[in-house]
TrEMBL record:
SMART domains: TBC
Organismal lineage: Eukaryota, Fungi, Dikarya, Ascomycota, Saccharomycotina
Name of the protein described by the UniProt record: GTPase-activating protein GYP7
Residue ranges of the region described as Disordered: 88-107
Coiled-coil residues: none
Domain Rab-GAP TBC: from-to ranges: 387-611
Source taxon at top rank: Eukaryota
Keywords assigned by UniProt, alphabetized: GTPase activation
PANTHER family from the UniProt entry: SMALL G PROTEIN SIGNALING MODULATOR 2-RELATED, TBC1 DOMAIN FAMILY MEMBER GTPASE-ACTIVATING PROTEIN
UniProt keyword Lyase present: no
């Protein structure tokens, strides 16, 4: 079939090319001569479909045919599956150990490979001489897309696939990032080093590159004056008075400016220009360069790139879940009458908050030997509904976090804490006394650098951490000139020691946010360390390299909002806001940036009780939505507006109100599940009764919300070249 469909294609091939017929497709090859491999980047993928299983890994390369000038160098992409073993080895070697850039073919490290295909109808392979390049669209990793990518536009208007840099798999990018770690600021404007940076730098050594002043993502290749004019800004048109709001006018003018410029690009056909737009996934078109999205990424570096990864997965999961959770109005009426209208909550009914547990009441919980005289459930109920007085927290938190067992007496706890102090200092000495590792272990130095940067910006508004009144113990530290204080140094040492305790995870930004309240309350580095270890047993899933833990929580929240706040969820669908980006930061560090300091302490001790659910934090998120749903549905119609509004709730939330709402919502959720289960059983008992109403399927994720068992996920063994978060 291939031979019948391609005569014109075959006749168009130049004399230096050959046509190779494979099973069901044709590959146009360059001449069989070997070419000089100048540059190679591994794990550059083609995404033929929206499904990750169809992604095709390959190498992006620059090769020089024999006697070719710089203009005749070929830019090529070759799938891994198309390479001969010896060529695959050469491409891999050039990836991690680049050849010298003098262009000489006689150098000791020169590599030669078979000439790459010019094009392949099935495998997507291609090669293009640099003189035929018009521009490269560069899209770094961002909150809109997990992988950075480039799109190559040719003067002959060929349609080439977008190339996606899977940097977490590329050995060269991993190595380059390690070298740049000391200069990397996780709170910068998002200029994360990625594979496209290296490629564009190398390409610039063989071709003149100019960034478009109209569209910063477009880089022109060897542009002539007409190219520059096509991508230069135009003068703003003079217009009369307008009734439009200033922001609306700016956005409208920007759109027309882009449209006018596209019309003036004589080198692009309409089809080619449309390809630029069509090739962008919906998530990119929707989220690219939104300031409120970038604001979330600026808070935590895991959000900057990882956020898009799990958001993409959530989109797939929630689409499937939508078919399970959606139910008919008839059964909604039945459930509404049985459960109550959970979209019109009365926060003064059903539940009651109580006074905090004071020192006298806490002591009364124990007998003369210091053994608990109440049940654990009774104590947890009291803490759940009232919280703890500050003076009680240093002792009570150790029970809630599992540092000391509930069934111990005072002497047993004293002995246990003595042992834990000794164990902490033993772990600390493992790195403290190892000067060789401190000086020569790149991973250790990378982790220390990340930890120190975060520690020096964590909770500096709290008196305990605010001063820098102590000389820094390390003269080579970036903070040597500004100084430090004892408590910051303790935080740093505890986080470094945690790496000795949990060797697979590594430090990830956000962990310092979880540690600082523990240390501030306990005021004992060794005991705070073990409290942190226990806390991390449940929080580790938030920091996994594959983000599966965060993704699972977001899928569960998606299902929960569909079930409990269906009108709001429908509004989110209309506003393209079902990705729930605004909850990433909240869930990652348990609302640490959303509530005032003292409220965070109260919230965490409530959550640690697991009194109703080990995932009660998801009902806190649901309560925040319930509290604000009327404003959102009545006034916020676009994703940007919703995201901005949710971000600006930070430090304005009333914790007591949110806790009451969360408990009411949980009670309604539990009754809803019970009723759905009962109706389902009735159908099984009476299958002959006609019932066309649709009940929601309560997903396993939703059922798990009824469990008090803490969900724990552990990081897999750390890959040899992996850095921390």
């Amino acid at each position: 079939m291939a031979a019948q469909c391609c005569p014109s294609l075959i006749s168009s091939v130049s004399a230096v090319e050959e046509v190779v017929e494979e099973d069901d497709y044709v590959v146009i090859m360059q001449s069989s001569s070997r070419v000089h491999l100048l540059y190679s980047k591994s794990k550059v993928y083609i995404h033929p479909t929206s499904s990750a299983k169809d992604n095709i890994p390959g190498f992006l390369a620059l090769v020089r045919p024999k006697n070719a000038s710089d203009r005749e160098i070929l830019l090529a992409w070759i799938p891994e599956s198309l390479l001969e073993p010896q060529d695959s080895e050469a491409y891999s070697k050039a990836d991690v150990d680049p050849p010298t850039m003098d262009g000489s073919e006689d150098g000791p490290d020169s590599l030669f490979v078979n000439a790459p295909p010019r094009s392949s109808i099935s495998s997507y392979a291609f090669s293009v001489p640099l003189y035929n390049l018009y521009s490269v669209q560069v899209r770094p990793p961002s909150l809109g897309w997990w992988w950075g990518s480039i799109i190559i536009h040719t003067k002959s208007e060929e349609t080439l696939p977008a190339l996606f840099f899977h940097d977490s798999e590329s050995k060269s990018t991993i190595l380059q990032r390690k070298k740049r770690t000391k200069d990397f600021d996780p709170f910068d404007h998002g200029d994360l080093f990625w594979g496209g940076d290296a490629f564009m730098s190398i390409l610039g050594q063989y071709a003149a590159l100019e960034k478009s002043t109209l569209e910063p993502s477009i880089v022109l290749v060897n542009p002539d004056p007409e190219d520059r004019r096509s991508f230069a800004p135009i003068n703003a048109s003079v217009v009369g008075p307008s009734e439009e709001p200033p922001l609306t006018k700016v956005l409208r003018d920007a759109r027309w400016n882009v449209l006018e410029k596209l019309a003036r690009v004589t080198r692009f056909s309409k089809r080619a220009a449309q390809n630029v737009i069509d090739r962008s996934p919906p998530q990119v078109r929707q989220l690219l360069n939104k300031p409120e999205v970038r604001k979330i990424g600026d808070d935590f570096d895991v959000a900057r790139v990882y956020l898009a990864k799990w958001a993409m997965g959530i989109a797939e999961e929630s689409e499937r879940a939508r078919h399970r959770v959606v139910w008919s109005d008839g059964y909604r009426d039945i459930l509404g009458s049985a459960v109550g209208d959970f979209e019109l909550l009365n926060v003064d009914a059903e539940v009651e908050r109580r006074n905090e547990v004071g020192q006298a009441e806490w002591k009364a919980f124990f007998d003369h030997s210091g053994r608990l005289s109440l049940t654990v459930s009774e104590v947890k109920e009291r803490v759940f509904h009232g919280g703890l007085a500050p003076s009680v927290r240093p002792e009570a938190w150790l029970f809630l976090l599992g540092v000391v067992p509930w069934d111990s007496d005072a002497e047993e706890r004293k002995s246990l804490l003595y042992e834990k102090r000794n164990e902490y200092y033993r772990l600390k000495r493992k790195w403290w006394d190892d000067t060789d590792r401190q000086q020569n272990d790149d991973f250790w130095k990378d982790q220390k650098s990340r930890i120190e940067k975060d520690v020096h910006r964590t909770d500096r508004n709290i008196a305990l951490f605010s001063e820098s009144d102590t000389p820094h113990p390390d003269p080579d530290s970036r903070f040597a000139e500004v100084g430090t204080n004892l408590h910051l140094e303790q935080l740093k040492d505890m986080l470094i020691t945690y790496n000795e305790y949990n060797t697979n995870l590594g430090y990830v930004q956000g962990m310092s946010d979880l540690l600082s309240p523990l240390y501030a309350v306990l005021q004992d580095d060794a005991i705070a360390f073990w409290a942190f270890c226990e806390f991390m047993n449940r929080m580790e899933r938030n920091f996994l390299r594959d983000q599966s833990g965060m993704r699972q929580q977001m899928v569960t929240l998606d299902n929960l909002v569909q079930l409990m706040l269906p009108q709001l969820y429908a509004h989110f669908e209309r506003a393209d806001a079902t990705n729930f980006f605004f909850f990433f930061r909240m869930l990652l560090v348990w609302f640490k940036r959303e509530f005032l300091w003292n409220d965070v302490l109260r919230l965490w001790e409530v959550l640690w009780t697991d009194y109703l659910s080990s995932q009660f934090h998801l009902f806190i998120a649901l309560a925040i939505l319930d509290k604000n749903k009327d404003v959102i549905m009545e006034h916020l119609k676009q994703f940007d507006d919703i995201l901005k509004y949710m971000n600006e709730l930070s430090m304005t939330l009333d914790l007591e109100d949110i806790l009451i709402r969360a408990e009411i919502l949980f009670n309604h959720f539990k009754r809803t599940v019970d009723i759905v289960d009962r109706k389902t059983e009735e159908r099984k008992v009476h299958p002959d009764q006609e019932d066309t109403q649709k009940l929601p399927e309560i997903s396993p994720e939703l059922r798990q919300l009824l469990s008090r068992k803490i969900i724990e996920q552990r990081e897999v063994e750390r890959p040899p070249n992996a850095t921390g978060g």
